[in-house]
Design goal:
Two copies of one chain form a homodimer.
Chain A (H helix, E strand, L loop, with lengths): L11 H11 L1 H14 L5 E8 L4 E7 L13 H15 L5 E6 L6 H16 L3 E6 L8 E3 L7 E5 L1 E2 L4 E2 L7 E5 L17 E3 L11 H19 L10 E8 L3 H24 L8 E5 L9 E3 L5 H15 L8 E8 L6 E2 L2 E10 L2 E10 L16 E4 L17 H26 L3 H4 L1
Parallel strand pairs in A: 3-4, 3-9, 4-6, 9-10
Antiparallel strand pairs in A: 1-2, 1-16, 5-6, 7-8, 11-14, 12-13, 12-14, 15-16, 16-17, 17-18
Chain lengths: ~425, ~425
């Protein structure tokens, strides 16, 4: 099940792997102490990029789908972690209401919901699914390939509680990143546990906040391991609110692209890396209707924006003004993992503080610098082998699948920890408890 | 890896399996609520007997060896559970001192120690081994078959702390059931976490206390599931202190054997079970130098005792007066699990509240009612398949390996929960916190 990966087997990444393996007890204790002070997200997935010379998280998802892509052997770990999570947050929980995203026409997504329902059922909860769609008036049965059908029911909102007909949950699990905005039906639920909280959704999140906090953690973590934090930390430049339809907006974006490219080129030179540096521009607020744009030179920015403007006019998306708003520039991290000739992007899944599995997004058609999780991206999931969960001490650096996955799990947990800091920083109720 | 088991596939056990599977969320929540009030033992293993018509724990070990018998696929679960356990008890822990039993000449036991050290190392602790043997003056290297050698070091006791040369642990993990008595070197360690506590050792434990508490739990649990608690609960009769070298002592023991046999026969009749009831007599304090004796009729007791007396005189064991002390009589539970013609006794391993694996003790030579864990018992371990951790809802009762193991895990956790109550009841410091 584990793909044979053709990666750069020389250079700093092997030193990183070696250092991470040698430091296993130190690393695990470091995380343990962090979790004494901070609460992990209920569940998360982190996209990791392995350039061969550096390793970095590029996206931390707080409403992960794709649980069906994990191998069945990983299920016991997910169930055990779910038990631990529920026990801490709401030990008396009996009924769990799972609120999916709008993708319920997608059979892969339905398999994901089945898997999630199974995990929480085995962890000791009665699980039912409630739809945010106002169009759903009666329960519907949704066929799941190779499994029992799922029943999706209309939500019922009372003054203080959300539920279904004859189903009053103590816990509501969102599997919906709220990128379409926070539905009123989910607001002011103070009697029930809403997991993750609403401020984990994209209406509140900003890539810039996440990666600023990630950078702080990466610096501290790199210090513990005695290494350069750049090896695990992509250079970033937040742009704030920009209007890319104006020359001033374009110039501001170009300046930030330049900052990132200059930093990256300097590091490439320092490490003797013979690659062309690139930057990725995206909306800071997670909006996916514009970008991400890959740029190797700041002077290419106006052409990309112009093209987007044209495309937007053609599709009418301009009405949502995707070119006006917060933007974010990040160092592009090459993905040098290959299965035969196909790019393989590792994704690590976590429940509470525990790494419970992962898989490779394998896509033969895409170049190594492109986002693989964009709209319409199709991929073949290749589950990590379950024995990959634990490092093999003593194996040659770069040669051991389990060791590589352990390293991915460490970096993914750093990303998750950054999300934990982020949720604290953006918690609208934080001052109440201070 | 999972043996094909020839068991009685009809009768109440299938109804029990069915009921347990249907009640998964209820059962998991029931345990979750119990763990809100009670602390699980740090680690434990429970021997389970499946008679085909009833299922019961027969021994709960609080210092389990044999971790090497679990399949490597179970290691991630054990590590994750160890992380959860450490995080709750001593999150700041850095160094763990593992104190083995005296069996360090046994290579199987050394493999067990290796596995334990590996689990806690991967959970984020520096692990070293300290010997209780006063003869050990210098560190020794012990060869472990198929693995790196272990170093066993002499313990160093300060006024308030126990450690090794240049190694000051915050946590001490005993893998020694203290059946030889509590060594003074382990007493009055109030600055370090001693896991499990000294009163988990046999100098304090009594089978009768454990099974009295188990019975209470089995009754409550059976009520939740709407079934007869006898199906998971072996009838017991504590005898208190007896002198079996006197007629009065013998008569008292016979009376208790009669109580157990009468109860068991009545139940066999009620369920139409065509087997001969039997009882097991053992020392209540875990001493293994006498018994266990299997009896089908109370009148056979004097002959068994006389034979033991003769054997004791021959070996000189009489000096330790094994026939004077606390005794315990328990309903014998048939083991009807077979791999081909060999008896297969399931053992379930737990770390903190989590079932992390198990194996079958397979022994071709022993009859179905004999203890398989006695002195000198040799067995072939057959690890449960890791996919056995999660029930397969919908499979035909009695036909699914995973479902059977899930049921074993439930009953084993009931045994572990009884041990948790037991440790509370026998805690010498309990009144301090009351």
């Amino acid at each position: 099940m584990v793909p044979h990966l053709v990666t750069a087997l020389n250079g700093p990444i092997n030193e990183l792997e070696q250092r991470i393996l040698e430091s296993t007890p130190v690393i695990e204790r470091w995380f343990r102490l962090e979790w004494m002070e901070h609460t992990p997200p209920f569940y998360s997935s982190v996209d990791v990029r392995n350039a061969g010379f550096k390793l970095a998280p590029v996206d931390t998802c707080l409403f992960p789908g794709g649980w069906n892509n994990l191998s069945p052997e990983m299920l016991p770990l997910a169930v055990q972690a779910a038990m631990a999570a529920i026990e801490k947050i709401c030990p008396e929980a009996k009924n769990l209401l799972l609120v999916p995203s709008a993708q319920t026409h997608n059979t892969f997504y339905l398999s994901n919901l089945s898997r999630l329902a199974q995990i929480f059922n085995l962890a000791g909860l009665n699980v039912r699914l409630g739809s945010l769609s106002a169009d759903l008036k009666e329960p519907v049965q949704l066929e799941v390939p190779g499994g029992a059908p799922l029943t999706l029911e209309p939500l019922q909102r009372g003054k203080r509680r959300l539920g279904l007909k004859h189903f009053d949950p103590c816990t509501i699990l969102l599997n919906n990143d709220l990128s379409a905005g926070v539905p009123g039906i989910l607001e002011d639920l103070h009697e029930q546990y809403l997991l993750p909280p609403l401020h984990a959704g994209w209406p509140t999140r900003r890539h810039s906040t996440h990666f600023r906090l990630y950078e702080e953690l990466a610096k501290r973590f790199a210090k513990v391991l005695g290494m350069d934090h750049w090896l695990i930390n992509p250079a970033c430049a937040p742009c704030g609110e920009l209007d890319l339809t104006t020359p001033a907006g374009l110039a501001a974006l170009q300046a930030q692209v330049d900052v990132v490219l200059t930093k990256t080129r300097r590091k490439y030179k320092e490490y003797g890396i013979n690659e062309k540096a690139f930057a990725v521009i995206k909306r800071d607020d997670g909006r996916a209707d514009v970008g991400p744009w890959v740029v190797r030179d700041a002077k290419d920015v106006p052409a990309l924006v112009a093209a987007a403007q044209l495309a937007g006019q053609a599709t009418g998306a301009a009405a949502r003004q995707p070119l006006q708003g917060p933007f974010f520039v990040q160092e592009g991290v090459l993905n040098n993992e290959r299965i035969n000739d196909a790019v393989a992007e590792p994704v690590v899944y976590m429940m509470d503080r525990y790494v419970v599995g992962g898989f490779y997004r394998v896509h033969a058609d895409q170049a190594d610098h492109q986002g693989m999780n964009g709209p319409g991206a199709s991929f073949l999931p290749l589950a990590f082998d379950q024995s990959n969960h634990l490092p093999q001490l003593g194996a040659r650096p770069g040669a051991s699948g389990p060791n590589r996955f352990y390293m991915y799990g460490v970096i993914a947990r750093l990303g998750m920890l950054a999300a934990s800091y982020e949720l604290e920083a953006t918690d609208p109720d934080a001052e109440i408890y201070d």
